[in-house]
Design goal:
Length: about 170
């Protein structure tokens, strides 16, 4: 059994995502700056199962890809890839998907093992080979790209500290 290297609190301190779009429960392996393994426990309580599909609940493939991307981004943040040229921390955004294949359905009760291997980084863009497994079987695999961008300024920063008025 892998030990927990990052729990949900550590993940929330790293990623900007929050419920219901935070799709990683824990990180159980990080090897240098090149490999990461995370876990997503898939339960019937997931909000997407209400509509996908009520009589035959299947985790949408696009959300399996998103979970893989979140694990890859955690690896990027941990490897220091989020440092901007001015020394500040940027945000890492999903930039592309290649070679995506879905090989097994992901259903309630499954433990989704999420793995990402950094293939290369250049000029603020990282490329990752990723796969999601259930019971040792590949459920999904893809090559993902992520791009470093400056963080967006908040509404308060844009208005000099004043909060926008919304009617």
């Amino acid at each position: 059994m892998d030990r927990v290297l990052m729990d949900i609190n550590d993940i929330c301190a790293t990623l900007p995502h929050r419920y219901p779009f935070l799709l990683v429960d824990k990180i159980v392996a990080i090897e240098g700056n090149t490999f990461i393994r995370g876990i997503k426990n898939v339960t019937m309580n997931e909000p997407f199962f209400m509509g996908h599909f009520p009589e035959y609940p299947v985790m949408p493939g696009v959300l399996v890809i998103e979970a893989l991307a979140q694990v890859a981004v955690i690896l990027a943040y941990k490897s220091g890839a989020s440092r901007m040229p001015d020394g500040g921390r940027g945000i890492i955004l999903f930039a592309g998907i290649d070679e995506a294949r879905f090989k097994r359905q992901v259903i309630p009760g499954d433990v989704l093992v999420l793995e990402a291997e950094m293939l290369r980084t250049a000029r603020g863009v990282g490329k990752y080979k990723a796969r999601a497994l259930v019971d040792g079987q590949v459920a999904c695999e893809a090559v993902l790209m992520a791009a470093l961008r400056p963080p967006l300024r908040s509404a308060a920063q844009k208005t000099g500290g004043a909060q926008p008025v919304i009617d």
